[in-house]
Amino acid sequence: MLRLVVDRSWISNSNLSKGLADDVSNKYLFIQSYFCCMNFSLREATKQDAALIADLSQQTFFETFAADNSKEDMHKFLNEQFTRGKLLLEVMQQDLQFFLAYAGSEIAGYVKLRQGKQPASLGKAKALEIARLYAVKTMIGKGVGKGLMQKSLDIAKAKNKEVIWLGVWEKNQRAIDFYQNWGFEKFDEQDFLLGNDLQIDWLMKKLL
Fold this sequence. Notes:
Structural class: alpha+beta
Number of strands: 7
CATH superfamily of the largest domain: Gcn5-related N-acetyltransferase (GNAT)
Low-confidence stretches: 1-18, 20-37
Mean pLDDT: 86
Radius of gyration: 20 Å
Strand order of the largest sheet: 1-2-3-4-5-7-6
Number of domains: 2
Strand content: 25-35%
Helix content: 40-55%
Oligomer: single chain
Largest sheet: 7 strands, mixed
CATH topology of the largest domain: Aminopeptidase
């Protein structure tokens, strides 16, 4: 991984005006972030990736939600509602599209896109759903989510969609903040059953 190290003290101690120094500093930080993440790559999944996606789906779901839910509810969900067998079949569905993110040769995350099914509160708008977007735990905060989100927006625009939307657990503040930073706004709610626990998901959308 190429990493650009910036000595910000040089900027602050130079003869640059404060406004110009801040601008230069921000540009260096942007370049640093870009180069740190430039070895990520994305590819569309194929039917041959079914096992990889199934295992990755269970892994990232557990990593994301196990700490905030009971062992009993997580076990029931993963073994009855979110089973490997059901996940294997998803890749074969025509209305679903998956993209995989890699850091070098290491799997870093994935996004699942779905079209056709949408809540009544969206009306007749041409919409694409981000059904799942996850980074593996060790890759959170390293740009994987940003890359997958940008890919989702690109796909939605290429399909001439008017809206892109998603569901997110109301208690998952990190994810809510991430989506709001991308311009998503809450427009509805829906139930989500995790094991025996009936939870509330926020539905969020972004106009394209």
